[in-house]
Amino acid sequence: MSDRPGISVLDRPNSYIGRTVERPNARRLVQGRGAFVDDMKLPRMVHLAFCRSPYAHAEVVSIDKAEAEALPGVIRVVTMEDLKDIMTPWVGVLDHLKGIKSAEQWPLANGKVHWQGEPVAAVVATSRAIAEDAADLVMVEYNELPPVTDMMTALDPETPVIHKELGDNLCFERNVDEGDVDKAFAEAAFVAEETMRFNRHTGVTMEPRAIICDYNPADEVLTLHMAVQCPHMSKNLYAKHLGLDENKVRVICKDVGGSFGIKIHTYSDEMAAGAITVLLGRPVKFVADRLESFVTDIHARDHVVKARMAFNAEGEITALDMDDVTGIGPYSVYPRTSGIEANQVVNLTGGPYKHRNYRCRARVVFLNKNVMCQYRGVGHPIAVAIAEHLIDRGAVALGLDPVEIRHRNFIPDDAYPYTAPSGAIYERQSHHQCLDKLVEMMDYKGLRAEQAALREKGIYRGIGFVSLVEVTNPSPAFYGVGGARIASQDGCTIRLDPTGGITCITGVTEQGQGTETIVAQIAASAVGVSMDNVRVITGDTDVVPYGGGTWASRGAGIGGEAALQAGKELRKNILKVAATILQSDPEALDIRDGAIIDADTGTERMPLSELGRIAYFRGDTLPHDVQPELVVTRHFVSRGFPFVFTNAAHACHVEVDIETGMVKLLKYWVVEDCGTVINPLLVEEQTRGGVVQGLGPALFEECLYSDEGQLQNGSMADYLVPMAAEMPDIVVGHVETPTATSELGAKGVGEAGTAGAPGAVMNAINDALGSFNVSLADMPFTPEKVLRALGKV
Amino acid sequence: MSGGNAMEKTYPVTVIVNGTPMTALVPARLTLADFLRNEAELTGTHVGCEHGVCGACTVRVDGRTVRGCLTLAVQCDGAEVETIEGATEDGRIKDLQDAFIERNALQCGFCTPGFLMAADELLNDNPSPTREEIREHLSGNYCRCTGYQAIVEAVEMTAARRRGEAQ
Ligand code: FES
Ligand code: FES
Chain B within 8 Å of A310 (Cβ-Cβ)? Predict the structure, then answer.
């Protein structure tokens, strides 16, 4: 076999690792032959629409469903009274987030509504149009209550408490105080200080949330066709709260039109659909329309952070001190909680740097707005922007270049593994290398010269940098230890088919990031077959190994390693059978391009199809003690470190029009280190997509609420997302520091772009406007805010 | 929205869908996108916003692209409608589809049929678009996954290849 010392399976001849290959699932999507949930129809299927609360906070006095139920085509109007006996409520807390609290949440309003958009009644009808018509006919009488909509006053004694039983509006608080922060500030040569705002925004997946719930009362099986990131998690939750046998709940997830953390949470309307199929014994479809998406898909961020950073005269950071308030919705979202983001901010702010004095208080408060929870980058964009803004302020004050001040502060290369004052542990990071490479790629000197020359002509260009760390490949430390049944391990089954091809069945899921492709690349390389002979199956809990799915950038690092180990083991098993048939020694054989070969000479001995034929159909010709095992399953859980951190350096180049306040994105550069690169093109495109998802909220995207808790821009016409014309070209470079926690060495990459972009564009804008002595730190940076900072409006 | 209630008045329409006439009784409010998805069972036309902004529902009616969610099925009586399925079968956009795959200009693929229809129109109208013109033309289509650059490059690449310039 070719696993001789020194030759890793990754370097085998014909390895697909590190190569750009075509995505096997792309062809059906470009032909309009994908299988998204809403494309599916089942016999006797009915449709669901919801009557939702128009108020942010109110008592439900009465619900009159007579008129709605009288509409032809309406099957039933369901309220919480109808579901109480078949469902249990849920509470979004985790044991390891000490002190986190939330209230019981039900699928439909249980006497009170807590945000505008909360479902109050569900209409079941023969078509969606009828269900929507009837939803308008459900008459609900409300008694309005004062809404809590300002996170900065949510904890004040005079503010009403949203859930009386909780005692106050505090969901979660965490404090860290390491080293001697006060002393460091007292002795500082310079202190940078800022209050920063991180706007509430949302995912706007192009495919809205969609689910078909199909309960068969005869065999008590519940089948859920859903657009979801974590099929096994959903399986558990529906079984648990509907009182069903978990083994009889099946989740099937085919094509998903974007997720980004939206399709990973428990939503009232989707849980209601599950309850209603049990109630009716027929399939129920719910597809959110775009207006519903804006008021129900989880919102993201919404932080106000007061932060200060102390520097010595050499530009070294000596301390960081901050206070973060996050405004979530009326509930902590189940089961991942709305406390994780603040926890990440505490863990990660200033992550690349070597200072030892760190104090942070993070408080998460309930509001009568839509729920806030984990969205692509979870906490990272905030953590990155805070430290990167302050370090730039230090650079300006101390007369240092932003690149130089970062180099002076990075954790030294020889200090790894390194434990940050927040407790985060880094295996190994490549901050210096990434920043060096970035500076070279972008022609930094040239850009600075151009900036100076254009400034003379009244053109204001700016360059903004960020360096960052990112959590990937999570171990059970993320959720499992907190009591949530969210798997951090994942599995892969690989089968040699009689044709000589292989089928890989994996617990990780595909949302367009390319999971199926990288699993195929790894499996093909490990077994020794060509990519054309690999099929990958994902997303069906009746079929795939138990696994966590897609979250926290784990697909490649965790799912990929499981595929690698399964593939290696299958190769061994195949070679054992081959050695018997060929009367050779397994050690003397190998598999290359779908054939058994002599390991030394490369001479073909037998195609795998022939081995498959003999093993599956002519077992009679094999010796009695040889039983071919041509299916192998392997699992992988990351151990040794709670998380495997990646790192990256970003730079953003902008031009600010000081007359209109418009920010034009000129170009963007990223150098990322996600360990072993399995498919360079996929890494680059994940990075580009991620960057744009960070640029959007920094410049345009914002869920604007009135003081009454009404979302004021909840349509695609009013909520601005990045469009092709305004986005820059993004150049991506790689540094590879494989993790030693797995043989594959891959870390995640899906979120790093989003983590860095808001800070980079903020720093670029402030760099452009440096001569005006302004500091913009209130996202999004709309033209109006830019002009206000310049004193022009 | 699709399907009216049992009392709702319906109108007979004949729409030529990808070359084949299709007759149906439809309520006045039924959109072309829902007609295609639910009546013709061509689910490649996607619905992302239902209010004319995202471009996922882009199809061709009598040779020009329209928003399927803003067009009513009854308006298309007698019209030639082409969807992504039809354009695929026609073979006209094969090179564009191949370029999208090669360049990984799709991730989840939900926006992709709309982008392909829009890009097809651009390349017919302008065989040599600049990157800016491509970005401008495609600004009526939203993509949340790719960040657009790969899409722009796939279109640029296809245009160059059609002009016989190797790329
Ligand atoms: S669905 Fe028609 S434009 Fe969005
Ligand atoms: S590829 Fe997902 S929206 Fe464009």
Answer: no
Asked if the Cβ–Cβ distance from B109 to A73 is below 8 Å, we say no
Residue closest to A287 by CA, chosen among A46, A34, A65: A46
Phi, psi angles (nearest 5°) of residue A99: 85, -5
Ligand approaching nearest to the C-alpha of B141: 1
Q: Where in chain B is the domain with CATH 3.10.20.30?
A: 10-87
Q: Which residues contact A198 (CB under 8 A, 6 or more apart)?
A: A301, A302, A303, A304, A305, A381, A382, A385, A758, A779
Q: How far apart are CA A53 and CA A191, in angstroms?
A: 47
Looking at residues A359-370, what average pLDDT do you find?
A: 98
Sequence-distant (≥ 6) Cβ neighbours of residue A34 within 8 angstroms: A28, A254, A255, B44, B109, B110
The CATH 1.10.150.120 domain(s) of chain B lie at 91-162
The DSSP output letter for A618 is -
- Show the CA angle centred on residue A761, arms to residues A760 and A764, nearest 5°: 90
Q: Give residue B114 CA to ligand 1 midpoint distance, Å.
A: 9
Tokens of A416: 């790894």
Architecture of the domain made up of B10-87: Roll (3.10)
Token pair listed for A708: 């009454």
Buried/exposed code over A504-542 (b: 16+ C-beta within 10 A; e: otherwise): bbbbbbbbbbbbbbbbbbbbbbbbbbebebbbbebbebe
Instruction: Note the pLDDT tens digit of each residue in A52-71.
Output: 999 999 999 999 999 999 99
Pairing of strands A284-287, A112-113: unpaired
Q: How far is CA A775 from the centre of its chain?
A: 30
Of the candidates A582, A590, A745, the one whose C-alpha atom is nearest the C-alpha of residue A4 is A590
- Give SS3 for A102: coil
DSSP for A16-48, written as a single string = -TT-----TTHHHHHTT---BGGG---TT-EEE
Average pLDDT of chain A, as a whole number: 95
- pLDDT reported for residue A484: 84
Which domains does chain A possess? 9-34+489-636 (3.30.365.10), 37-145+208-256+262-296 (3.90.1170.50), 299-476+640-789 (3.30.365.10)
Beta bridge partners of A176: A360
ipTM: 0.97
Q: Is A693 on the interface with B (CB under 8 A)?
A: yes
Contact B156, B135 (CB under 8 A): no
Is the CB of residue A258 below 6 angstroms from any atom belonging to ligand 2? yes
The arithmetic mean of pLDDT across residues B122-126, rounded, is 97
CATH number corresponding to B91-162 = 1.10.150.120
Separation between Cα atoms, residue A344 and residue A336, nearest integer Å: 13
- Smallest CA separation from ligand 2 atom 4, residue: B143
